[in-house]
Amino acid sequence: MKKHLALAAALCIHASTLYGVDWLNQGARAAGMGGAGVAAVRDASATYWNPAALALTPAWDMHADVGVHAYFTGPNIIGELSDILDTIDTLESSIDDLQVIQDRLNDGTATEEDLQAMLQIVLVNFITLHKFNVGMALDASAAGSLRFGRTAFSYNYYGYGEGAALVDLVGLALANAPSGGGTANFLNAMSGAGINDRFAEGSPEDSVAEMLEAIMITNGIRPSDAELFAEELVYQSIQAGADIYDEAVHEMLRAIVEATSSSRPVVVDNETGMHFEGLLLREYSFSYAHPLIPKKLAVGMNAKIMTGIGYQDAIFYGDVESLDEVFEHLADPFNRVESSGFGFDFGVMYQPFEQVRFGLTGRNINAPGFDLPDGSSYEVNPTWRGGVAYYPFRSLCLAADIDLTKNPSQLLWDYKRREYSVGMEFGTKFLAVRAGITGNLLDSDDRLDS
């Protein structure tokens, strides 16, 4: 029996050594301004934000930084996490009973309560993961830079990672009768239950039943049996607490009918769980900037020696029995592999007036690749970002950045990031007050930075 999302929330949090391709709010000044650093940067963190800035404001200084950034998917992450935790409690409290229920469904001795308990797991608990693109991405960084005029050296760690719920839409058969065959499976799963005309003709419930009935007939079940099985399945689903008006529930019901008709794996063999992929990058970087027009236009580049540790893992809901086992599973050395590569960043800074700066930065423009445990490789996608900074007077800076590339997710389907940042800084010799916001132009989900 596989205990899945058992640990959805806890496992995602452990993803600090996994990968992504977004920009990190490196440096206290940029972080305080919401991540607007491409044009506004003036210190040693220019090695990250825009190496060309080293030529416009040459100095001797250093910077160190640690940060964690989290992205959640789904329209209501707080509600979803609550549902996931409720699901964990439900599965863990009933884990020993599920196999007993499955055995009864298989041999035709199940009660209506047994059938409803199994349908609740699929149509109420699993639906939380399937209905929304439930997942989380975490980015972490630890960086240090030392600047000598127009050159700098950096030693950086970047951790990029994602965890996504994967719902198994194949292993959903309610019963696998010893004789096999769809009719036998439905007879066993719904033995003793069922009366015709459960719902009024033309009602929403009747429409869903007719949809399922058509699938059953296509899969070889007699029309008279299909009508009875479909109506009973919809009725018992409602009794189990499923929202029968929800299209996501309809999709799951269609999958249940397909699985039960085809003698596919039963629910207790379902492989719903969490999938994790990530990359921990260690970089040794040399930066150099050259002024093309003194105090006006400069270009800069980072040359990086990179070591990447690729990580992949899938944890199904029957693989672990405790949180300690989860961390042991994630720490398994067979789930990660190390490889090396080279990376290049490029930056341009243009300052037409003393009060205005425009910046452009491309990171990992050569798309360095690193190995993953399954034998595939992951290319760190090049990311380009533009920015502007305006100083209406010396103590006030207004800045804005925007991603010029879309940064796709590897696990969270159809989820992309293209971020913008807007910030301000009011500073004196003794105090700096900063504020800023950041958001994703391609998604309305929240971003939490720390």
Helix content: 25-40%
Q: Strand tally, please?
A: 16
Mean pLDDT: 81
The outline comes out as elongated
Radius of gyration: 28 Å
| Straight-line distance between termini | 38 Å
Describe the sheet with the most strands: 12 strands, antiparallel
- Total DSSP helices: 11
Order of helices and strands: HHHHEHHEEHHHHEEHEEEEEEEEEEE
Spatially, the strands of the biggest sheet line up as 15-14-11-10-7-6-5-4-3-2-1-16
Question: Which oligomeric state applies?
Answer: single chain
Instruction: Specify the structural class.
Output: alpha+beta
Descriptive report:
The chain is of the alpha+beta class and 450 residues long. It contains eleven helices and 16 strands. The chain has helices at 8-13, 28-32, 46-49, 53-56, 77-107, 112-131, 182-189, 204-218, 223-239, 247-261, 323-330, and strands at residues 59-73, 135-149, 151-166, 273-293, 297-316, 336-353, 356-363, 369-371, 377-379, 383-393, 396-403, 407-408, 416-417, 419-427, 432-440, 447-449. The strands form three sheets. It has a twelve-stranded antiparallel beta sheet. Helix 6 (112-131) packs across helix 10 (247-261), helix 8 crosses helix 9 and helix 8 (204-218) runs parallel beside helix 10. The radius of gyration is 28 Å and the shape is elongated. The two termini are 38 Å apart. Mean pLDDT is 81; it is low at 1-20 and 445-450.
Secondary structure elements and their pairing?
Layout: H1 8-13, H2 28-32, H3 46-49, H4 53-56, E1 59-73, H5 77-107, H6 112-131, E2 135-149, E3 151-166, H7 182-189, H8 204-218, H9 223-239, H10 247-261, E4 273-293, E5 297-316, H11 323-330, E6 336-353, E7 356-363, E8 369-371, E9 377-379, E10 383-393, E11 396-403, E12 407-408, E13 416-417, E14 419-427, E15 432-440, E16 447-449
Antiparallel strand pairs: 1-2, 1-16, 2-3, 3-4, 4-5, 5-6, 6-7, 7-10, 8-9, 10-11, 11-14, 12-13, 14-15
Helix pairs in contact: 5-6, 6-10, 8-9, 8-10
